[in-house]
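Please check this one:

***
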Amino acid sequence: MTQADAVVLQTTIPGVPLPQRGKVRDIYDLGDQLLIVVTDRISAFDVVLPSGIPDKGKVLNQISHYWFQQTHSIITNHALSITSTDFPEIFQKKENPQIEGRSMLVKKCKPLPVECIVRGYLTGSGLKEYQQTGKVSGISLPPRLVEASRLPEPLFTPSTKATQGHDVNISFETMKQILKDNALANQIKDISLKLYQLGRDLAEKKGIIIADTKFEFGLYKGQLLLIDEILTPDSSRFWPLDGYQEGQSQKSFDKQFVRDYLLTLKWDQTPPGPTLPDEVIAKTRLKYIEAYERITGQVFKN
């Protein structure tokens, strides 16, 4: 079997209406529930690339499931099951490689229109803003911080949730205006920081720095729930602890490896994206699997 044969770029389930397709997920609407299938698609600079990463969807699905179990004490999440025998019968007609290991049955929530980003280290767009203004999302930081500096304390730096194009970093005050509910905004900020701190501390014990991450929330019958994915290599920057050095770019277990390759090309970061070489695909797959195995303590089974 070649890498191309092993990749699930999109799903189609006979007898089920075509799903809503996000950058990575195919979402089947089941009324008051959703079946979220995590494909092997990969996006960079908000562009879905033509190449997929074998087993990436399984890794993301199972890491999220692990973290959902770890964070119940902080907030309830939307997950119901990742076991296919719990799915509606139409998804169980026969063993289906489009579904097995990469799917999660969840409560159907109303997503809140913001991304909840927490930064523990200075990098990416946060570093660029700091270098220009000395601030990140309107929050003043100490002078002389550099690439990969650990921040004095984690920062909550929300952004818009763009359906097309790029998300835009916003201040907490702007987030309050978007949500039109100060109490809800404060609750989300508090929960996001607690989730990050729990994840950061657990991951560090396993040799991984979670430099930053994003969370998403939704409302289900008036209850605030954690939704989408959590603390995965797609939603976070994962760095190896043993190679960490302030002042330089870090090695990573996430899709930064793909971004770094793309930055060597003459590509304007607009669709269509370039095809990835087999070597980049293979190395990226191994990075995702290593992240899974370190975090969960389990051997990945594809």
User: Anything to note?
Assistant: The helical segments are 3-6, 56-70, 124-133, 172-179, 182-205, 256-262, 278-296. Residues 111-258+286-296 form a domain with the D-amino Acid Aminotransferase; Chain A, domain 1 fold (CATH 3.30.470.20). Residues 182-205 form the longest helix (24 residues).
